[in-house]
Write a structure and sequence with these properties.
The chain is mainly β and about 110 residues long. The chain has one domain. The protein is built from 1 helix and 6 strands. Strands 1, 2, 3, 4, 5 and 6 form a 6-stranded antiparallel β-sheet that branches. This is DUF1820 domain-containing protein.
Length: about 110
C-alpha cells in the first residue's frame, strides 16, 4: 500500500505566517488559488498542548477544503511526516517576508469581441 504524501504549506494570513500540514494540494480551478485538503494535525500525547496548534485545529475544524491565494504562499514542501502546526507573528513589518509578485492579469473575454 502506497503511503499518502504529507505537505507542509506556509502562507501569509493577516500579518501572520501560518504553517499547516495536509495530504492533498493542487492548483484550483478558481484562478489564482491553491486548494489544500485533508488537514493533518499532530496527535495529543501527554500533557503538553501547543496553543498555536490548538488554535489552528479549531480554526480549520469542519473545513473540507481551503483556498489560499497564490500570492500568499511562502513555501510548499513535501515532508516525510507531519509536524506541529504553527502561527507566527510577522515581526518588523512586511519587509522580512515578501509576497510573490502578482500581475493582476485575469483571463477572459476581450472587450470589443
Amino acid at each position: 500500500m502506497a503511503v499518502k504524501p504529507v505537505y507542509k504549506v506556509i502562507f501569509l494570513n493577516q500579518s501572520q505566517v501560518y504553517e499547516v500540514f495536509c495530504s492533498a494540494i493542487y492548483q484550483s480551478e478558481m484562478y489564482g488559488f491553491i486548494e489544500i485538503e485533508e488537514f493533518v494535525f499532530g496527535e495529543r500525547s501527554g500533557l503538553l498542548i501547543d496553543p498555536a496548534e490548538e488554535k489552528l485545529k479549531t480554526e480549520f475544524a469542519g473545513v473540507k477544503r481551503s483556498y489560499i491565494p497564490m500570492h500568499s504562499i511562502v513555501r510548499i514542501d513535501e515532508v516525510e511526516k507531519e509536524g506541529p502546526a504553527k502561527i507566527t507573528e510577522v515581526k518588523g513589518g512586511s519587509d522580512k517576508i515578501a509576497q510573490f509578485p502578482y500581475s493582476g492579469f485575469m483571463p477572459g473575454p476581450q472587450s470589443g469581441e
